Amino acid sequence: METNQYLGIFIDESNENLQKVNDGLLDLEKDPTNMEHIEVIFRAAHTLKGMSATMGYEDLTTLTHQMEDVLDLVRNGELAVSAQLLDILLNAVEKLEEMVGDISAGGDGESTIQPILSQLKAIGEIEESADEAVTSTEDGVNGQLTLDSFEETVISQANSEGLHTYQLTIQLTDDCLLKAARVYMVFGILEKEGEVIKSVPSVETLESEEFDHQFDVVFVTSVNEKELKDKIMKVSEIKQVNIQPIKSVNDHEETDNKEMDRTPREQASKEAPNNSDKKRKQSANKTIRVNIDRLDALMNLFEELVIDRGRLEQIASEMEHSDLTETVGRMSRISGDLQSIILTMRMVPIEQVFNRFPRMVRQLARELQKDIQLDIEGAETELDRTVIDEIGDPLVHLIRNSLDHGIEMPEVREKNGKNRQGHVLLKAYHSGNHVYVEISDDGQGINREKVLNKALENQVVTPEQANQLSDRQIDELILASGFSTADEVSDLSGRGVGLDVVKNTIESLGGTIEIASEEGKGTTFTIQLPLTLSIISVMLSTVGSETYAVPLSTIIETAIINQDEIVTIQGQKMMHFKESVIPLIFLREVLDVPDSNNAPDKESVIIVRKGEQVAGLVVDSLIGQQEVVLKNLGNYLTSIFAISGATILGDGEVALIIDTHSLIK
Amino acid sequence: MSEVSKEIKVIVFRLQNEEYGVPIDYIGSIERMLEITRIPNTPKFIKGVINLRGIVTPVIDLRERFGMETSEYSSRSRMIIVQIDDKEVGMIVDEANDVVDLREDAIETPPEVIGSVDTDYVRGVAKLDDRLLILLNLDRVLSNEEVSQLSAVEK
């Protein structure tokens, strides 16, 4: 069956549903008696099962089906919500995520689901073994189909909502060539009109054409018999459609049961109007799904426009023609607005990244035997997709670090007069042209003495330097490369890589990271990120006949100095800047520029920083500040020293963008 | 499938006095010389990057890539933009002005010594009437490893 065109949608929706299940389970843990959570989880799991079956992912279908069975028991009050149950269900969700991930990476979604499957079965069987027999339905029978308990429930629920349930027997013509295709078309029609509860043979079997010419479907719909029949008969090569209404077979036996389990459902349905109200409000905010490629194409076109805008501004200022200048000015403003709209279109809520943390924290807290509560604020804060893709790993690292090194063991916390439960707050917010993400814990804070000793031991700082460090500088040592060493690999935050990796990643995104810590009270990491990576402000400068761009985000200020202000210390040329002496980096030497004016009377210096370090980049002259479109150098040229990318200037010339971080050692 | 050997279309270009060929499938476009921005700290044969209709594209000098004598670019010099895998690179050649059809079975494995190019970079040679055409192995010519290797040496 040709399902490729639906693959993208399938993956998106699966992820959404998995997230719902995940959130639902965590809510359920906090509030185990609230049946509403179970309903949400159940619905999401059910949708997932249906979709996977349609797409032909057997393992996914089997696993979600088993989950559903267990959830059904919980829903019917036959199984209590326990930590063990939640663990197993969360593991199953994790497995499912893994499988969906595999599918989106081009795999077939197959995986070893047996262990988790038997866990699910086991927990289900404790309370229920008789029901199991019903679950295994016989395939390929004519007449009334056997239905398992779940299907029964759905039907009785549907009936109570005034929907019709039918058993359809569909017969294809004997000479039908593309049986699977016809089946697919029939299912297409059915899914538009209602919900397929069951099919015999199974959907997978039908898809692989392993059936004769007839199949049965149990179907819930609001459409009447005749209309349904007409619709299905529109598919060619269908010989006959038989439609029989289904009454719930176990109606009598189940009456008692139903009376009981209707109570929670009625509660749910009482609350349902509220819910749907809420939903209606949400859907008033209309959205459409747009392929990300189209947004990228739009962005590329706009980037071209930005280049021409630059050129026009330049021409207008040269011409000094007032009408032209005015028109160009207006155009610039409009394109500025356009730019912000396009950029916001590419923005996605940071929720996407935050979503995985509650489960991670829960799991880690268990492993560490700590009691930790994660609070999330500002998950709706939006960031450019390119930044979102990169920020996940650093955050994982920082949260692990807070959990492992920040929060103390419950006993220790108690002894120190704190609440047994530790708190970690993950918070995102906008401010100016930046997005801030804060990770704060109420743990033990940074032990500066320990940090300093370790930094000395690992030769990150010299003893002389150590004496002059401020508290803040000591805190920041934990981000220094070479600070974390392999011998303290704990399974959690260790892993042999230090927090310096986090710092590097964030800086490569054009962001910064700061630490504030108070011993005994806790630590806060603040990450500042740019809203977007594709259009940046730079300072253009010339070296010889070449033009280079330095990102404005790294520049402190520019200066022009006389030759005699340059001092040489231990062979290194330096200059005075504020209270200190900073090294000078001569771009004409580092970049090997051929026809640069060597040693003029005055030097132009761009003073840049990398964290706490400051250096002066010496160029021939400064042109000015400009917004440019960041372009990469392609896949042929990778890791060029001191160059992070390129941009196209107004006159069509390519200018290289200096990677100041690699220049400052 | 028929027994007749497949024909491929090949772009023919000149380096010094030799004629080379690249299958047309790999060719994005052929450009006159565009302004090149030098990239510091790269091997000599990498001339820099050009603005190819809004896309920053690296260009290499094919003469220098093969260690031939360098020459000034003339009005006949061309940049052949080739695409291979996910890489797009411009190759500067002395002249490019011909497209020929070549039968696959007319391509022979290269002899040990062929023209001035290392046989590593050659996929085969083909006789075309009285001309000899050297077909390049673009994978090797445009391999990244050499770029990083060479830049490491030059540093």
UniProtKB/TrEMBL annotation, chain A:
Region (Disordered): 246-285
Domain CheW-like intervals: 535-665
Single GO MF annotation: phosphorelay sensor kinase activity
Keywords, sorted A to Z: ATP-binding, Chemotaxis, Kinase, Nucleotide-binding, Phosphoprotein, Transferase, Two-component regulatory system
Catalytic activity: ATP + protein L-histidine = ADP + protein N-phospho-L-histidine
Superkingdom per UniProt: Bacteria
Record field: compositional bias (Basic and acidic residues): 249-269
SUPFAM superfamilies: ATPase domain of HSP90 chaperone/DNA topoisomerase II/histidine kinase (SSF55874), CheW-like (SSF50341), CheY-binding domain of CheA (SSF55052), Histidine-containing phosphotransfer domain, HPT domain (SSF47226), Homodimeric domain of signal transducing histidine kinase (SSF47384)
Top EC group: transferase
Gene3D superfamilies: Histidine kinase CheA-like, homodimeric domain, Histidine kinase CheA-like, P2 response regulator-binding domain, Histidine kinase-like ATPase, C-terminal domain, HPT domain, SH3 Domains
A UniProt-annotated Pfam family: H-kinase_dim
Residues with Phosphohistidine modification: 46
Domain Histidine kinase stretches: 283-533
Statement: the UniProt record of this protein carries the keyword ATP-binding: yes
CC per GO annotation: cytoplasm
Protein name: Chemotaxis protein CheA
UniProtKB/TrEMBL annotation, chain B:
GO CC annotations on file: cytosol
All residue ranges annotated as the CheW-like domain in the record: 7-147
Biological classification of the source: Bacteria, Bacillati, Bacillota, Bacilli, Bacillales
InterPro entries (UniProt xref): CheW, CheW-like_dom_sf, CheW-lke_dom
Gene Ontology biological-process annotations: chemotaxis; signal transduction
Transmembrane regions listed in the UniProt entry: none
Superkingdom classification of source: Bacteria
Tagged with keyword Electron transport: no
Name of protein: Chemotaxis protein CheW
SUPFAM superfamilies per record: CheW-like
Subcellular location: Cytoplasm
Keyword terms, alphabetized: Chemotaxis, Cytoplasm
